[in-house]
Amino acid sequence: MDPREKEVAFEDLEATVPFSAIAGMLASVLAGVFLAVVIVPRWAPNLAATLFGDAPKAYWYLSRSSAFAAYGLLWISMAMGIMISNKMARMWPGGPTAFDIHQFTSLLGLNIGLFHALILLGDRFIDYKLSQLLIPFGSVNYQPLSVGLGQIGFYVLIVVSLTFYVRKSIGHRAWRVIHYFSFGAFLLAMAHGLLAGTDSAHPLAVVAYAVSAVSLLFLSIYRIMVAVFPAKRRARAN
């Protein structure tokens, strides 16, 4: 057990990822997208033609791989958050450490999710416009419904993640209520991946979706049991 566990309650944990780190992540994402979408095609057209061409190759592959990376980070963040609330994090890796992982993976996952969307600006097969990537259900060129689910989930996660920094202002109760929306965002992300992802039928993808869903369901059920049974024991004692 973390020696700080007796001193630090979940309600007292503070955001530990500074805004400068978030800005650095965002700048890296935007710089990477700009380099891949704008600089490479203009400065190295032969290389761009070899890598990309008119068919969905490198940009599409980058979007697909970053989608799984973002989904994996979201899963880790969700798992750590639930483990903190159901006290399992006290056994491993410790409440404060779990909170740091929960926060960092959430923010990093958002940035990789943004890269997952914006890198498609370079794909000439689907030919996305920026507005189609940013406006929910604006993906007229490719499965607008399933893509829109992912877009809504992304925006919900932005709101949830930003509450790390305003918890004292909005109060713990409001912060907790907003955090519950992360479950909906996770389901939207999973639906987006299963319906819109071209790799969703791959055995490894099936295993990844199944493991993430089952593990979070187990942790959530355990969280409910931890909350309900002590209450029942207190009611009997009274």
Plain-language structure description:
The chain has 238 residues and is mainly alpha-helical. The protein has one domain. Helices cover 72% and strands 0% of the residues. It is built from 9 helices and no strands. 29% of the residues are buried. Residues 1-8 have low confidence and may be disordered.
Topology (elements, then pairings):
Layout: H1 19-43, H2 45-51, H3 58-85, H4 95-118, H5 130-134, H6 144-162, H7 167-170, H8 172-196, H9 203-237
Helix pairs in contact: 1-2, 1-4, 3-4, 3-8, 3-9, 4-6, 6-8
Order of helices and strands: HHHHHHHHH
Name the quaternary structure.
Answer: single chain
Radius of gyration: 20 Å
The biggest beta sheet is recorded as: none
Residue runs with pLDDT of under 50 for 5 or more positions = 1-8
Beta strands, count: 0
Number of helices: 9
Shape descriptor reads globular
The span between the termini is: 32 Å
The residue-averaged pLDDT reads: 84
- Per DSSP, what share of the residues sits in E-state strands of 2 or more residues? under 5%
- Helical content stands at over 70%
User: How many domains?
Assistant: 1
Structural class: mainly alpha
Please supply descriptive tags for the structure shown above.
238 residues; mainly alpha; disordered N terminus
Provide a short characterization of the protein structure.
The chain has 238 residues and is an all-alpha fold.
